[in-house]
Design brief:
This protein is about 45% helix and about 15% strand.
């Protein structure tokens, strides 16, 4: 089984928007309650660990003693989601429910529920859905697990800090609802899903199974209208897919729902077409001047979405800086700024999805570089003792690199190539693809500003990025052939070798395209 996601933008009414905000707030409260409980425990564990290290214990021995101490002392034991739900959430919900019943019976609310002493103004936790509260607990548990993995080195990337409290302003509104069967007699009756796979909520104006591609049911929240069509999701479910959960989130002023679908591997994955085998393999060199250069000679332009929206973003940021902090005008401008950033992200995501879908559907194999994006976009500011050089220029280059999202391109290609049966080979980041001649293989170091590659050995002249893309695809082909010995294709299947390379028939010379020279036999496909 494999997992795939289907994301839709919701079109909620004003009342439904309020319900979604309440559910996100309930998940945030559960997250903060669990964070409050574990905060003191994490501090006590940190102090004990520091004490053991000062006493001369090694890190491994200190961790073992800390683990043994946590089994004996409950004040050092982390409370995870299951125990928290049983020992803390359930009693708190019962207390809220009992207080609400007493207030409804006519007792003085101050005697039953004093807002000055309680965390909330009135009892309400018993009205929140258990699955929504469990979503907040799982979010904290995942954040805590990431923190521990980051500390012990099993999680890549920079060190993560301890989970901190969520606020309405700083945090993203989101919650996840796990799917359950309403009836075990048929899989069509569910509390989460689109057309023909879910019923309207009891009490709504419409009844029966949802019959169009413009509505989805989100469990106890009811039925929501969506932008676009759910036909692709319905097709996956008809072929044997199963919805595991749905995640509702808000970006700027827009609400989205993402369905997690479990699919059998034989349904999710296909094989390359004859057209893809005929096209062969392609190497991709990502860049800033042009988004990508293909080994076929095609140049994909860089849309530079950030540069287009930068003027509007800076104007809104200046207006916000001049407003009084916390005023209604500043809140209104921050919403406009968030919407501007969200629209920018949508433009970039849409362009990259179209690009990667085109690449994964056009070739039988794809070669990429393993780029170190974090290192490429590191700051050049330096320190007080050793200040950096060309800091402003490097900052602009960093923004341009992040605008093309090279890591996102690789992520999209990985799963799209898997679904289409296309081989994806990632070569080492230290391979000098831009310094090798794609015709003779000699090495010539050229500066970054020089966009045309001139070979001093064979006299070849070619676009720098196209030259790098050709070297990338040949290096990937070499790595694949090194792993498995090359077998001769059966008779009639000579054109179905996924790593057959087709070089461009033209060569870039002084701004014009001329016929390309014939390369050595070692580079023939």
């Amino acid at each position: 089984m494999v997992f795939r996601g289907a994301r839709f933008r919701l079109d909620p009414t004003g009342e439904q928007q309020g319900i979604l905000s309440q559910q996100a707030g309930a998940a945030r409260v559960a997250y903060n309650m669990m964070c409050t409980l574990n905060k003191d425990i994490l501090e006590a564990r940190s102090q004990l660990y520091s004490t053991l290290i000062k006493d001369g214990k090694t890190k491994d021995k200190a961790k073992k003693e800390l683990k043994a101490a946590a089994k004996e002392d409950p004040s050092l034991a982390i409370v995870w989601a299951r125990d928290f739900d049983k020992n803390y959430i359930t009693p708190e919900r019962n207390r809220h429910k009992h207080a609400a019943q007493r207030i409804a019976a006519g007792e003085n609310p101050v005697d039953v529920w004093n807002p000055d002493e309680e965390r909330f103004n009135e009892p309400w936790l018993h009205t929140a859905n258990r699955r929504v509260l469990r979503s907040g607990q799982k979010q904290y548990e995942q954040a805590l697990d990431n923190f521990f993995k980051s500390q012990n080195g099993s999680r890549a990337g920079q060190k993560m800090g301890k989970p901190r409290f969520k606020t309405k302003i700083r945090s993203t509104d989101s919650f996840t609802i796990d799917a359950v069967d309403v009836s075990s007699s048929t899989t069509l009756i569910r509390d989460i899903g689109p057309k023909d796979h879910a019923r309207y909520k009891t009490g709504e104006a419409s009844t029966g199974i949802i019959a169009d591609y413009r509505h989805v049911r989100l469990s106890h929240l009811g039925t929501f209208r969506v932008f676009g069509s759910t036909k692709a999701l319905v097709r996956q479910l008809d072929r044997g897919g199963r919805i595991k959960s749905c995640t509702v989130s808000r970006s700027a002023d827009r609400w989205y729902v993402s369905f997690l679908v479990e699919l059998p591997i034989e349904i999710a994955r296909s094989t390359p077409t004859k057209k893809q085998y005929k096209a062969g393999a392609v190497g991709i060199d990502l860049g800033v001047k042009s988004l990508a250069a293909l080994s076929t000679g095609e140049i994909i332009p860089n849309p530079r979405f950030l540069r287009t929206a930068d003027k509007k973003i800076k104007k809104l940021q200046r207006k916000i800086a001049r407003c009084q902090k916390g005023s209604k005008n500043s809140i209104r401008l921050k919403r406009r700024l968030a919407r501007c950033h969200h629209e920018l992200a949508l433009q970039r995501a849409g362009y990259l999805n179209e690009l990667t879908s085109m690449l994964a559907s056009s070739f039988s194999a794809i070669a990429l570089e393993d780029l170190n994006v974090a290192g490429m976009t590191s700051s050049a500011r330096g320190t007080v003792e050793n200040p950096g050089k060309n800091v402003k220029q490097k900052a602009g280059l960093n923004r341009s690199i992040l605008d093309i999202s090279p890591g996102r391109i690789r992520t999209l290609l990985e799963y799209k190539c898997t679904d289409r049966g296309v081989e994806l080979q990632v070569i080492d980041r230290f391979f000098p693809s831009s310094q090798l001649c794609s015709s003779c293989g000699s090495k010539t170091t050229i500066p970054l500003a020089q966009r045309i590659y001139h070979c001093d050995v064979c006299g070849g002249v070619i676009d720098r990025d196209v030259n790098a893309a050709i070297n990338i695809v040949y290096e990937a082909k070499r790595l694949v052939e090194q792993k498995c010995s090359e077998h001769s294709a059966p008779e009639g299947a000579e054109d179905k070798r996924p790593w057959s390379v087709h070089l461009p028939s033209t060569q870039y010379v002084d701004g014009l395209y001329t016929r390309k020279r014939q390369g050595p036999s070692g580079h023939s496909s």
